[in-house]
C-alpha cells in the first residue's frame, strides 16, 4: 500500500486559530500534591522521634540518615510517576516543565541516596565505636535486605551519571534508555529494605500505611501510563507503514496510515515513541517528531540514519505494524503568544519545524542552518510551504566559523534579518551548539522567555 507522495499537506490550519494558555493551575496543583506528599513521607519520623532523644553525634547522624532515606524513597516514587507517560501529567505540567522537573528531581534523588547511605554508616560506626569499613561489613551481613538496597543505590547512581548531558551524548541511546528503565527495578529492590529496616516503617501504623499508599498510587500510575493507555491507543488506531521514501543521503520519510487518524489528537511539532514491529527493531521504542502536520489520512516522520536502529529503518516494508505511545510535547502552534513566529532549525530539527510551518499563522520567518547544500533536507517542501504561507525562508550554509553564519548568530545580524524579533514567538530545534548560541542571542535581544519555545529533546 502506498500513499500520495505530495510534499505539502492539502489541509492547512486556519491562521485565526488562537493560542491556548499554559496550564498554570495544573502545575500549581501538582506542586501542592508534591509538597504535601513530602510532608506525609517525613511525618512518621517526626511523630516517632521524642523530644530530647537526639543528644549525641551518633544519634544526630542516624536521625539525618533516616530523614534523607525517607526523602530519597519519596523522590524516587515521584520520579517513577514522572516517567510513567501518563497523558494527564503532560497536559497539566507541560512537556518542557515535565522534563525540567524530571532532571532536577533526578539530581536530588542521587544526593539524598548517597547522603542516606553515608549518614547511616557513619552514625552507626560512631554508636558502635568501630571503623567505617567494619561497620559497612556489619550492615551488609547482618541486616535484612541491605545487600539489595546497596545494589539499588548503585543502579540509581549509574542512572544519575548517565543523565549528565555530556555522558548521555557519549553513550548509545539504547544503553541510556535501558538504564533509565532500571529505575523500576531499583525501586523494587529498595522496597524490601524500607519496610524491613526502616525504623519508621517496619511496624504497623500510620507511617507504614501512608507509604503503602504511596506505592499503590505509583504502581497504578505506571500501569495506566505504560500499559493500559498505549494498548487502548494502538488497538483503536492500528498504525502501520504505508511507504518509506528516500529524502536524501541517510534521510528517509516514513508514511504511516491507520484507523481514525482524525481522532489521534496529534499536532504539528509533537512526537511519538515509535516501536516498529519488524525484525531487529521491535524491542526498542525511539522518539521521533512528526515532520508534517497530521491531515487525517497519514502521519509522517523523517529520520536521519545515525545508528544501527535508524539504519535498519530504511529497509522497513509497507504493511509493517507499529506500536506507538503519544502524542507528546507542547512544541506546537498552540503555545504561541504572538501572531508571528521565527523558526530556527538545523540537522534533524528541521522535521518538527517543517511541520509547524503548516499550522503557524502566515508571515513566519524560517532560518535553516546547514554546513553544506546537500545537508538541506526537505528543501523543496519548505520552499513550497513558504510560498503558500507567505513566509520568509533563509538557508544559512557554511561552517560556523564562516563570516555569514557567524554574523547571523549575533544580536546585530539577527536583528537585521528579523527586525521585529521581539514581537515574535521563536521556535528552536537543533543541535546543542545551535540552541545555546541562539538562546544567547535571543537573551541579548531581550526576547521574553515565554516567547521562546524549545523542542522537548533540547531540555
Describe it.
The structure is a single chain. With 459 residues, the protein is α/β, with parallel strands linked by helices. It has helices at 24-48, 57-82, 87-93, 95-128, 132-142, 146-162, 165-170, 173-197, 206-237, 308-313, 350-359, 379-388, 403-408, 411-417, 432-444, and strands at residues 240-248, 251-257, 271-276, 286-289, 299-304, 322-328, 340-346, 365-370, 392-397, 424-429, 452-454. Residues 1-5 and 9-21 have low confidence and may be disordered. The radius of gyration is 26 Å and the shape is elongated. Strands 9-8-7-10-11 form a five-stranded parallel beta sheet, with helices on both faces. It has a three-stranded antiparallel beta sheet with strand order 1-2-5, with no helix packed on it. Strands 4-3-6 form a three-stranded antiparallel beta sheet. Helix 1 (24-48) runs antiparallel to helix 2 (57-82) and helix 4 crosses helix 5 (132-142). The longest helix is centred in the N-terminal third of the chain and has 34 residues, at 95-128.
